[in-house]
Amino acid sequence: MSTKGAALFRGLSAFPMTPSDEGLRLRPERLAILLERIVAAGADSVGLLGSTGSYVYLTPEERRRVLRVASEVIDGKVPLIVGVGAMGTQDAAALARDAEEGGADGVLLAPVSYQRLTSAEVHGLFADLSAATSLPICIYNNPTTTGFTFSEELIGRLAELPNVVAVKMPFPASRDVRGEIGSLRARLPEGFTIGYSGDWEASKALLAGADAWFSVIAGMLPVPAVALARAAIAEDRAEVMRLEAGFEPLWSLFREFGSFRVNYAIAPHVGLTGLAPPRPVLPLDAVHLLKVEAAIRHLDEQVGLGVALA
Question: Which domains does the chain have, with CATH numbers?
Answer without folding.
Answer: 6-234 (3.20.20.70)
